[in-house]
Amino acid sequence: MSDGSGGVYRFGSVGINMQGPPEALSVGGNILVGGNIMKPSDMRIKRNIQPILQTESQLQNIKALRIYDYERIDISREVGDVCYVPERGLLAQEVQGVVPGAVRTVGNVTLPDGTLVPNMMVVDDRVLLLETIGATQQLGKAVDDVAKDNSNNRKIIDRVYDM
Questions:
Q1: What would the DSSP string read from start to end of 71-134?
Q2: Other CB atoms within 10 A of residue 137 CB
Q3: Which of 77, 54, 63, 62 is CA-nearest to residue 128?
Q4: Rounded to whole angstroms, how far apart are CA atoms 119 and 28?
Q5: How far apart are the first and last CA of the chain?
Q6: Residue 144 host element (H or E)
Q7: Which DSSP state fits 14?
Q8: For residue 135, which of 66, 68, 52, 67 has the smallest C-alpha distance?
Q9: Tens of pLDDT along 2-34?
Q10: Which of 11, 51, 56, 153 is 20 to 30 A away from residue 29, measured at CA?
């Protein structure tokens, strides 16, 4: 449907190269974006804002995640057309044990070979990005502490040499 301004709208889920899309927009394949993907983040539309000051757990979480090389079934293919795509990534079941908020189930998904995957799990990369930012901040604090210790040690060494 058109809204008269050249825009198109639809109520319900939309699937591109995918039957029975589990999300508002589900794309089977790559997405080429000529601009940026933006998410509203203006503080004026938020409430109960609490800064995360303790980032030690985020560093531990990131250290606990394992990265894998694997071949994933391309779920956007037609029935009977099974194709494996080489990828590097995480396993949702492992991520769920470390950062539960980064994993969701999207319902039952039927693979191109007809196999039903009940309650398929997906990983929210944005949650992991924020976890990585917290871990990086923790590493920055550790680097600052080491630099301060080195500076203090340098002063002690200089005093010993001056004696």
A1: EEE-TTSPTT---EEEEEE--HHHHHHH-GGGEEE---EE-TTS-EETT-EEE-HHHHHHHHHH
A2: 15
A3: 62
A4: 18
A5: 85
A6: helix 125-162
A7: E
A8: 52
A9: 666 777 777 888 888 877 787 888 888 888 787
A10: 11
